[in-house]
């Protein structure tokens, strides 16, 4: 017996009064709220900080860039539908940063090699992750979690000994600015534009969205489900590798816990950015808004004198509050 | 049970209405069930039987009208707890035991008072006693996990639990297709138990597509159609044909049945041949028939999965699939009509990985016109469409590809007559153009339009009918044949 | 052999194999003192594993159990020590927090991983507030309870048996536990029988909070001090323990006895790896590898059985 359709809940669009509609439709964009919240946090922080608005803005762009890189990867994974999440991002960042810096050993000529190694370690992690998911048919959470412990061990093992400094040219690039805008933010912006094109314009993005809404229907409609999911997990890990490479270069060396805060961060920016945690519905601009917000809220708490404990508690509470307010998708069937 | 002379209805519905959004699932039903009565309830899928059941067992509240349980007061509101307290028990169509619990432990779920020291021993006694009473000679171990039992055994356990007596005796037991997974012997044991139960003053609502059972067991038969009770007669008031007619069978709608004569395509190239013995030729319309759930849908799914890759997309798919269970197999609920319609065709509309949006819109507009999707804008959400129009979108998705074979999994469920006629015409035209259709349908009228029919029984092909052999009688006979043989 | 027996066999065999390997490598471990050392930290891990099992039982996953145990450890090492009334109130509030988390997840139909991940920051932040730098002290009674030396068998083993039996009675034998497992198996049917799934989920989470609290207290009793990061690795250990013990991620199929055995195996694995002179760098990875290995073995076993049934 077919279920009663939910048609009553979705009255057909009314045309006419176009301008009002378009204004309203912008206001309904989920990512707008992330930017509004980020703006509010910016004003509140800039009011008390000594660095001034410009400095604060540039710092926010720099730190948000790292969250954007991992957040976009996580967004594609979460878009694949309920149960899909990559918990190995922090370990991947650490591994990629460590291996790349070790390979370069401070030699500027080796920078391309280092980048390649960082991306390749992301690639390897992605392959392992999806291999575990598919071959052992275990939930992605468990697969990526257990993989992350192997990766972490690999990172610890390779990191043993001294903290290797990045080549000076690379460190300059990671901390430098082009036309006043931090280089890492430019990189993150380019990645975001690419991700937007894939999600909104490309066949691949359409397939990811389809799988996230109804994987069974997607398979029956001819979507190569395994290929798309594989590519998504690999892209996420490669982006984490890139983020780890840049972060290690930015902070003057790879540290074992350097990825730690990006586990919650990557999920949080997806949720706050207005993507549906239940999958199938995502947007890229929101990732930027949410990343700026997450940095600025911490700066704000800092500048108002809150300690580490309070900052952590508020971060957790904000994320839970936003997830709870957005609510899960009603299970259909 | 208690009092033979008590004639207060166990449940009385007065002008009951239930709306789901704009859909009238139940449209003014007045019905009282007296102790000692076995009410046979029949009707096609979507006639409102399940809604009626859910009202009686407290799972849904009425939109309008009232319900009265036993000697209570009439009210538009009810609850599961109130229905249970009044002795209403239910055996659902989908099995509702917890597979991870043992048979004994499953007794505990409905019997809330079963706690404290020795509850397990008591639960075991309750279920063992009932199983032995209803299904003498059964081999079910009450300590076994339900997940390890066969479907028939689970159904038996569920029935036994529903009839079991704990703190309140069952006064009304609703059996929704209780024999669908039982063999003939077990079904007979169940019917015998229902008779004993009713003779002792219990009431039963018996829902079944097996009309023979209904005619055999029911003391009163109620026929439902479109959310209403259309006919109601006491035992003996219906014969088999009368009951079929009362359900508003195809005969009424298909009077001018423009049935195309089955074509013989002996010489045409074979495009599908499965290990299960199913073959289909170029341009042929192959029907899959038989009772619901006997492996037709699985056969279609296997054909679809075997002929498409999960690793490589393609511009020219070998098969296209039209889902019947739209929510589960077809729809992308967040998307627009346009995106739902174009998904399968999309690889062919892609240049260098990017979707050619103009071509996509063109394709959507063409299919909107060809198949008549009723909407003012293809960018509206898919869920804004009626069920029939959603189904048209799924047809457009499949027919819009270049796939030479189209698989249809009972796609006409809950679709209005007008849409059906449009789609029949389109299928014939496409088949004439060389497309092959494999069409599973629960409606005999549709199967009779096919060139060749496979009748499924117990997951296998039980008969192959061609040409003039394709008749309702032959299909029914083949559907039951093996049961008689066993 | 039925499914339940098979489920418990795998953890028992792995524990036996591992124990045999340890004794073979280090025969001196085969003594009261040796066993005591080997299983030293098994009790808090076993308790945390039971907590995780209760969450997995209702088809969720708790990524905050490690930080919660750390939080409890910090409270126990400070407030319970200095101001017992306030200390126990805070611990009770923690359990109530777990119940509220379960209710919220059910009411708003939220993904448990995101909510528990968020909560892990809350517990972590609270722990930092209560105990900014490692320290504190164990309440005297707790210290003596955890270090008591019963005759014949070390405390860790005795306590593990007690935990296993108690959890088994609660989850597998009691009428209440049946309803909780029923929610994991078929929530719709439990709801249809007139139970409140909301209450059941809140109860399962509250019980998890209770066992998590016991875990944190036991940990302080053993280590005599706490810090905010003391038990972070318990999140993975507890998940691995449940799975190793024959539990499944969905469907309410969990085994408390198996979970405790799984926890003992993991505790032993740590000792075994150090006997093998495996560098501490690989300890975490080895635990991840064990988890993957167990899942692979189980897949092979169930495939083999599936083939036999089909044949």
What does this structure look like?
The complex is a heterotrimer of chains A (333), B (486) and C (311). In chain A, a hairpin with a 2-residue loop joins strand 1 (177-178) and strand 2. Helices cover 71% and strands 1% of the residues of chain A. Chain A has a single domain, classed as ABC transporter involved in vitamin B12 uptake, BtuC, CATH 1.10.3470. Chain A has a two-stranded antiparallel ribbon with strand order 1-2. Chain A is an all-alpha fold and 333 residues long. Chain B has two domains: 11-251, P-loop containing nucleotide triphosphate hydrolases (Rossmann fold, 3-Layer(aba) Sandwich), CATH 3.40.50.300; 254-485, Rossmann fold. A six-stranded mixed β-sheet of chain B has the order 5-6-7-3-8-9, sandwiched between helices. In chain B, helix 13 (357-371) crosses helix 14 (387-399). Mean pLDDT of chain B is 85; it is low at 249-258 and 482-486. Chain C is mainly α. Chain C has one domain (3-14, 31-303). Chain C has 14 helices and no strands. The mean pLDDT of chain C is 88. The chains are: A mainly alpha (333), B alpha/beta (486), C mainly alpha (311). Chains in contact: A-B, A-C, B-C.
């Amino acid at each position: 017996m077919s279920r009663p359709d939910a048609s009553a809940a979705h009255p057909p669009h009314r045309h006419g009064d176009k301008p009002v509609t378009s204004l309203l439709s912008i206001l309904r964009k989920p990512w707008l709220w992330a930017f509004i919240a980020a703006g509010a946090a910016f004003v509140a922080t800039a009011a008390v900080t000594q660095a001034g608005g410009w400095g604060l803005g540039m710092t926010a762009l720099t730190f948000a860039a790292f969250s954007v890189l991992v957040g976009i990867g996580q967004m594609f994974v979460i878009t694949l539908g309920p149960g899909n999440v990559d918990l190995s991002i922090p370990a991947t960042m650490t591994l990629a940063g460590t291996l790349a810096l070790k390979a370069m050993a401070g030699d500027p000529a080796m920078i391309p090699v280092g980048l390649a190694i960082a991306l390749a370690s992301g690639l390897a992690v992605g392959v392992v992750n999806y291999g575990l998911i598919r071959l052992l048919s275990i939930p992605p959470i468990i697969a990526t979690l257990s993989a992350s412990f192997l990766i972490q061990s690999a990172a610890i093992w390779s990191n043993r000994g001294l903290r290797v400094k990045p080549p000076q040219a690379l460190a300059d690039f990671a901390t430098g600015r082009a036309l006043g805008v931090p280089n890492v933010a430019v990189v993150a912006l380019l990645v975001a534009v690419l991700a937007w094109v894939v999600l909104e314009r490309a066949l691949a993005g359409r397939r990811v969205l389809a799988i996230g809404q109804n994987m069974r229907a997607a398979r029956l409609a001819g979507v190569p489900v395994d290929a798309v999911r594989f590519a998504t997990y690999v892209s996420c890990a490669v982006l984490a590798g890139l983020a780890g490479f840049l972060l290690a270069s930015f902070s003057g060396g790879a540290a074992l816990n350097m990825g730690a805060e990006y586990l919650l961060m990557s999920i949080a920016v997806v949720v706050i950015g207005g993507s549906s945690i239940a999958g199938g519905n995502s947007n890229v601009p929101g990732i930027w808004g949410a990343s700026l917000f997450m940095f600025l809220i911490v700066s704000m708490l800092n500048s108002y004198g809150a300690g580490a404990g309070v900052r952590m508690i508020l971060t957790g509470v904000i994320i839970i509050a936003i997830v709870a307010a957005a609510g899960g998708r009603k299970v259909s069937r | 049970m208690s009092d033979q002379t008590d004639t207060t209805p166990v449940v009385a519905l007065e002008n009951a209405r239930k709306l789901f959004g704009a859909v009238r699932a139940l449209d003014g039903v007045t019905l009282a069930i007296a102790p000692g009565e076995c009410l046979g309830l029949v009707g096609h899928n979507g006639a409102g039987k399940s809604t009626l059941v859910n009202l009686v067992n407290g799972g849904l509240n009425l939109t309008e009208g009232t319900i009265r349980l036993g000697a209570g007061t009439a009210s538009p509101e009810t609850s599961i707890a109130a229905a249970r307290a009044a002795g209403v028990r239910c055996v659902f169509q989908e099995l509702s035991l917890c597979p991870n619990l043992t048979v004994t432990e499953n007794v505990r779920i409905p019997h809330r008072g079963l706690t404290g020291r020795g509850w397990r021993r008591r639960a075991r006694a309750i279920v063992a006693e009932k199983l032995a009473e209803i299904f003498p000679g059964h081999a079910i171990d009450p300590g076994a996990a339900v997940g390890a039992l066969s479907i028939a055994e689970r159904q038996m356990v569920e029935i036994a639990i529903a009839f079991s007596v704990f703190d309140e005796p069952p006064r009304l037991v609703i059996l929704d297709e209780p024999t669908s997974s039982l063999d003939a012997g077990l079904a007979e044991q169940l019917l015998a138990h229902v008779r004993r139960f009713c003779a002792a003053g219990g009431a039963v609502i018996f829902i079944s597509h097996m009309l023979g059972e209904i005619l055999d067991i029911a003391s009163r038969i109620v026929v439902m159609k479109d959310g209403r009770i259309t006919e109601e007669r006491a035992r003996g008031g219906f014969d088999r044909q009368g009951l079929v007619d009362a359900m508003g069978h195809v005969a009424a709608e298909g009077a001018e049945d423009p049935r195309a004569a089955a074509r013989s395509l002996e010489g045409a190239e074979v495009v599908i041949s499965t290990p299960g013995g199913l073959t289909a030729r170029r341009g042929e319309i192959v029907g899959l028939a038989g009772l619901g759930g006997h492996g037709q849908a699985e056969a279609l799914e296997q054909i679809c999965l075997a002929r498409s890759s999960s690793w490589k997309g393609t511009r020219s798919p070998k098969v296209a699939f039209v889902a019947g269970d739209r929510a589960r197999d077809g729809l992308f609920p967040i998307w627009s009509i346009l995106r739902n319609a174009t998904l399968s065709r999309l690889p062919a509309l892609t240049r260098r990985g990017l979707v050619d949006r103009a071509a996509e819109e063109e394709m959507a507009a063409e299919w909107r016109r060809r198949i008549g999707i009723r909407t003012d804008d293809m960018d509206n959400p898919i869920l804004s469409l009626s069920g029939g129009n959603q189904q048209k979108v799924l047809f457009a998705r499949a027919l819009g590809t270049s796939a030479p074979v189209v698989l249809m999994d009972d796609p006409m469920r809950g679709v209005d007559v007008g849409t059906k006629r449009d789609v029949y015409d389109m299928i014939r035209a496409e088949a004439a153009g060389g497309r092959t259709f494999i069409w599973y349908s629960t409606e005999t009228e549709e199967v009779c339009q096919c060139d060749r029919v496979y009748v499924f029984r117990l997951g296998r092909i039980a008969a192959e009918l061609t040409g003039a052999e394709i008749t309702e009688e032959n299909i029914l006979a083949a559907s039951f044949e093996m049961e008689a043989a066993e | 052999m039925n499914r339940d027996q098979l489920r418990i066999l795998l953890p028992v065999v792995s524990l036996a194999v591992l124990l045999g390997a340890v004794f073979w490598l280090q025969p001196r471990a085969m003594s009261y003192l040796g066993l005591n050392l080997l299983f030293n930290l098994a009790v808090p891990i076993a308790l945390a594993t039971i907590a995780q099992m209760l969450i997995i039982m209702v088809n969720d996953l708790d990524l905050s159990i490690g930080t919660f145990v750390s939080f409890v450890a910090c409270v126990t090492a400070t407030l319970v020590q200095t101001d017992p009334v306030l200390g126990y109130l805070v611990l009770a509030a923690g359990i109530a927090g777990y119940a509220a988390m379960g209710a919220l997840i059910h009411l708003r139909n939220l993904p448990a991983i995101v909510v528990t991940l968020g909560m892990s920051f809350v517990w972590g932040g609270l722990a930092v507030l209560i105990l900014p730098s490692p320290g504190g002290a164990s309440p005297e009674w707790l210290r003596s309870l955890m270090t008591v030396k019963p005759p014949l068998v070390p405390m860790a083993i005795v306590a593990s048996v007690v935990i296993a039996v108690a959890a088994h009675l609660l989850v597998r034998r009691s009428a209440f536990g049946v309803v909780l497992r029923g929610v994991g198996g078929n929530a719709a049917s439990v709801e249809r029988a007139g139970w409140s799934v909301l209450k059941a989920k809140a109860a399962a989470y509250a019980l998890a909070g209770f066992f998590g609290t016991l875990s944190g207290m036991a940990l302080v009793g053993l280590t005599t001090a706490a810090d905010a990061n003391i038990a972070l690795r318990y999140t993975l250990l507890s998940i691995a323990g449940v799975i190793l013990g024959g539990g499944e991620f969905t469907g309410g199929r969990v085994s408390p006895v198996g979970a405790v055995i799984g926890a003992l195996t993991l505790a032993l694995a740590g000792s075994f790896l150090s006997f093998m002179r495996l560098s501490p760098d690989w300890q975490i990875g080895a635990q991840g590898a064990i988890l993957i290995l167990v899942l692979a073995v189980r897949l092979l076993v169930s495939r083999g059985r599936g083939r036999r049934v089909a044949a």
